[in-house]
């Protein structure tokens, strides 16, 4: 259909006049006005990305809490190990 756009260079005036009929400009003020009145909705990919982001945050929070409890338990056993060593000697 657009064989003219195969990459060959054309004169600027010829190219602009020739391609203009394929891409009409239209009324820009009308398009701008319609965008302001319309309600912005998130595309489906944006919503799934948000849900994925929340899942990753929950995953990180879970492992942070898990390692924190491991740290507390290890400190607890380390403390009693030191007390045991002191008690033996």
Would you spell out the secondary-structure blueprint of this structure?
Layout: H1 12-20, H2 28-37, H3 44-88
Structure description:
There is one protein chain. The protein has a domain at 51-89. It is built from 3 helices and no strands. Helix content is 72%, strand content 0%. The chain has helices spanning 12-20, 28-37, 44-88. It is mainly α and 89 residues long. The mean pLDDT is 70. The termini are far apart. The chain crosses the membrane at residues 47-64, 69-88. Keywords: Membrane, Transmembrane, Transmembrane helix.
Q: What are the defining features of this structure?
A:
3 helices, mainly alpha, 89 residues
Strand and helix order: HHH
Count of helix runs: 3
Percent strand equals: under 5%
The stretches of 5 or more residues where confidence is low (pLDDT under 50) are none
Which term fits the overall shape?
A: elongated
Keywords: Membrane, Transmembrane, Transmembrane helix
Transmembrane segments: 47-64, 69-88
Question: How would you summarize this macromolecular structure in one to three sentences?
Answer:
This protein is mostly helical. It has three helices and no strands.
């Amino acid at each position: 259909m657009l064989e003219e756009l195969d990459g060959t260079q054309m004169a600027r005036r010829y190219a602009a006049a020739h391609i203009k009929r394929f891409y009409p400009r239209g009324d820009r003020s009308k398009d701008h006005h319609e965008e302001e009145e319309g309600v912005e909705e998130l595309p489906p990919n944006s919503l799934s990305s948000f849900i994925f982001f929340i899942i990753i945050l929950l995953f990180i929070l879970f492992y942070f809490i898990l390692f924190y409890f491991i740290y507390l338990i290890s400190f607890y056993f380390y403390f009693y190990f030191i007390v045991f060593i002191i008690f033996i000697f």
